[in-house]
Amino acid sequence: MSSLGRASAVIAAGTMVSRVTGLLRSIVLVGVLGSISQAADAFTVANQLPNSVFQLISVGVLTAVIVPQIVKATAKPDGGGPFISKLFTLGVVVLLVCTAIAMVAAPGLVWLATSEKQQELRALAIAFAYWCLPQILFYGVYALLGETLNARRVFGPFTWAPVINNIVSIAGFLALGAVFHEVPRSAASWTPQMVAMLGGTATLGIALQALVLLVFWRRTGLSLRPDFRWRGAGLGTVGRLAGWTMLMALAGIAAGFFQSSVATTASGAGASSTVLANAWLVFMLPYSVIVLSIGTPYFTQISEHAAAGRHDEVRADITRSIRTLVFFIMAAIAAVAAATFPASRVFSSNLNEAFGAAPVLIAYLIGLLPLTILFIVQRTFYAYDDTRTPFWFTIFQCALVVGTALLASLLYSLDVIPVTLLAAGVALGQSIASAVQTVIAIWLLHRKIGGLQIGSWMSAIGRFAVAAVPAGLAGWGVFLLLGGTAGWTMSGQLLGAIGTCIIGAVVVVVYIGILALMRAPELTVAGSMLRRFLPGR
């Protein structure tokens, strides 16, 4: 547990810094483009295209397939070096081909992700896409290097590298505002020079993020060289496993494109793609800092135990990891819920934009607990080289995502919901679909390996909920004491951030206090992990 605690601390620290600088990046971008504007939505759509392909690579191949295979390969007498060289060579070739295909298909990809009612937005998004899509190559190299470092228990660089991207992006966005002064919010007013400066900055940041990982490669103890001798290297197993996960990730991308096309209907009039992306950033901050930092070392350990056939230890890992993750994530849910309005103000250029963004954040927040549990459950399937089962329960989730987005669009067209709540409807559908997916995934994993001690999880979740509800209410009370929606926490982006921190701190103190009174056993584990952050630890 001490090694897991140290690894979690390193990952959490890097993730926290990278996420905070990522939030600053988004704040600067909102300051330049706004959050409810055609220009902001066009850039968001284009810049999410390489992100979508990255998710296809990362979720579809790396997390599901590569990490368990590298863990197995490094246990061999040769340390796995030759296998990893062949794997990297093949991976870079595939990335180059995918990038070229995406560049050719850029207009079609943008067409799928935008509403036909927003032709000017589409044209600008296509122009941005040609600058942003080369990120696919750099995202893929970053993921290949980072996941290999993780599999070799070198956890820090992968989580710290995005800080470089964020710093470069912040500098580029500020330069855009300085050079062009009043950056237009309308899509029709953008010039090629503006497009090149914004899109080029975004891609340069991703390239540097990938290249910096090469500095840390020596820590793996592996040699890395081009090797095109793929036959007989065992890559067939990788391809077989990756087939299901690639299909799964493709389904997720298709569902995301449909959500985006529905949301962009509201571009310029209400919350749309940019607000969805910024709300997702806030949503992902606790997920990344808590779930990824604690869950990633557990996934490596689960993969090792599964590969060795130590199934009882796998079950114990699942129980410990879920209870530990939920302990932290429940406090985060209460804190973000209480601070929804000031947190939304951070990513809005004015008060009305914040009011439009708050319902979107709340809608996403509903899915945070299910996604936390799903992280461990889904990766346990991957540890057992089972990528087919996650494909089927993810396909079901994607169908629900599309169905709920279609329902939101229908309700808007019938004037049941206003344009200002269209994006919130899309986000709520995402959360509902994730909750249903998680329930099905738990049931299927229980059938596969049994002994998941689900009752232990549920009693722990109930205990955490008992503490989280009054803690959240205490935070909401502080928000009201600070003036509520008419108070100083809503008067500016910086003040919104300060207010969010104050409210969040109150929620965490009350939450821990209640659990201490209840003598919750998880406090001991959480305390030992948090002590890893102290100087000298």
Automatic annotation (TrEMBL):
GO terms for cellular component: plasma membrane. It is found in: Cell membrane. Pfam families: MurJ. InterPro entries: Lipid_II_flippase_MurJ/MviN, MurJ. It is a multi-pass membrane protein. It comes from the Bacteria. The chain crosses the membrane at residues 20-40, 52-75, 87-112, 124-145, 157-181, 193-217, 238-259, 279-300, 321-343, 355-377, 389-414, 420-445, 457-482, 494-518. Keywords: Cell membrane, Cell shape, Membrane, Peptidoglycan synthesis, Transmembrane, Transmembrane helix. GO terms for molecular function: lipid-linked peptidoglycan transporter activity. GO terms for biological process: lipid translocation; peptidoglycan biosynthetic process; regulation of cell shape. This is Putative peptidoglycan biosynthesis protein MviN. It comes from Microbacterium foliorum. The gene is mviN.
